[in-house]
Amino acid sequence: MPHRPADSFTGRERVLMNWSLVFTRVPDLQARVLRTAVSGSEVWSEWEQIDAVFGGGGEVRTQMAAVFRRSGSACHRRSSAGL
C-alpha cells in the first residue's frame, strides 16, 4: 500500500520540486539500497534513509519503492515508508 495514496502526482517538475524540498529540510540525508529485485518492467528496492535533522536527530527509516519502466524510463512509482 502506498504511504500516502492521496498525494499522487505526475510530471518531472513535481518530482524535482518534491526532492528539492526534501534536501532543503534534510541537507544531511544519507540513503542506501538494502535489496533489489527485477521482474520484467518492474523494479523493487528497499531503502534505508538516515538523517540527523529530520524529527530532532538520528532518525533511521526504511522504505520500499516499486518503479515501473516503459521503454527504458520510469513511468510510475509506488512507495511505502516505515516497513
UniProtKB/TrEMBL annotation:
SUPFAM superfamilies: NTF2-like. InterPro entries: NTF2-like_dom_sf, SnoaL-like. Residues 3-70 form the SnoaL-like domain. Gene3D superfamilies: 3.10.450.50. Pfam families: SnoaL_2. Transmembrane segments: none annotated. It comes from the Bacteria. This is Nuclear transport factor 2 family protein.
